[in-house]
Amino acid sequence: MSPADVHAAVPNGIPVPDLDLPYPDRPEVITANLLKITELAPDPRVRFIFKNLISKLHEFVHETNLTTDEWMSTIKFLTRTGQTCTPLRQEFILLSDVLGVSALVDALNNPSNGIATESSVLGPFFTEDAPDVPLGESIASEGKGEYMYVEGRVVTSSGDPIPDAVIETWETDEKGFYDTQYTDRSVPDCRGRLRTDAEGKYGFRAVVPVPYPIPGDGPVGDLLLTMGRHNVRPNHLHMMIKAGGFRKLTTSLYPEGDIFLSSDVVFGVKKSLVVKLTEVDDEVEARKRGFQKGTKFKLLNYDFTLLTHDEAGVRGLDD
């Protein structure tokens, strides 16, 4: 609401705090006053999070003796980050990714138990409009890259099949671009949604993923240049799997041999997610799997293991 729409500015209705708050005329008083005020937050979790955030942020400002120009540059950077976001581009997720925060939050919330398939970062290129793809069909239109067939099972921690699990998958084309990076995108491509069969099996045609640079034309790209870091992700195939009663799995599979595996710009690679692609050179087999041209394709076979909510220590989530 603009000032022209009201007769006077209206406060939010929260009263003046009944606290001993000295005038903030010294750096340490600013921090102390803010921490006192933060105690008024009614939600205990909110109080805990913001007390820690404020303490660490103010400590950072003290330790670095941050200048006014440096802080204004930071504000301008964050403003640009927000302005770069669109319904199909999430620059803030990208920022979280390159600073390792996405990977850290994921690792803390999805610790490995040695049985379930490990998780990986979501990344900024997931969309809600993936088409439904029948088992054995393709997520990629013809000409998007080297043929690849992906197959396997989705099972419980005891190895039993999980039927009707929903699999969302997405990847780049052979040029290293997601469909959302094309200005003329009219329909989803190199992404799809499918379901496991009664035996927990899945299978679909795709293309061999390639390493690619994350978008370098925005503030996150500028940040990486300032830090002297490359902006490349190793080749990978995103997979998100949901089934009733089980914890949702968001992960990626990383074909072995990529030189960027250990220095992934978003820290998403885990050893258990590095996979082998088998080359198949058999025209009959290629046609059987639905590939239209040539005799060769790469085969990726991988079984996913999901945890129940009880096994994961989570109840009633991600059904």
Automatic annotation (TrEMBL):
An example molecular function term from Gene Ontology annotations: ferric iron binding
One Pfam family hit: Dioxygenase_C
Ranges where the Catechol dioxygenase N-terminal domain occurs: 43-113
Ranges of residues in domain Intradiol ring-cleavage dioxygenases: 140-306
Keyword Oxidoreductase: yes
Single GO biological process annotation from the record: catechol-containing compound metabolic process
Domain of life: Eukaryota
Keyword terms: Dioxygenase, Iron, Metal-binding, Oxidoreductase
TM annotation in the entry: none
Cofactors, names only: Fe(3+)
Xref: PANTHER family: DIOXYGENASE, PUTATIVE (AFU_ORTHOLOGUE AFUA_2G02910)-RELATED, INTRADIOL RING-CLEAVAGE DIOXYGENASES DOMAIN-CONTAINING PROTEIN-RELATED
Family designation: Belongs to the intradiol ring-cleavage dioxygenase family.
Name of this chain's protein: Aromatic compound dioxygenase
Phylogenetic lineage: Eukaryota, Fungi, Dikarya, Basidiomycota, Agaricomycotina
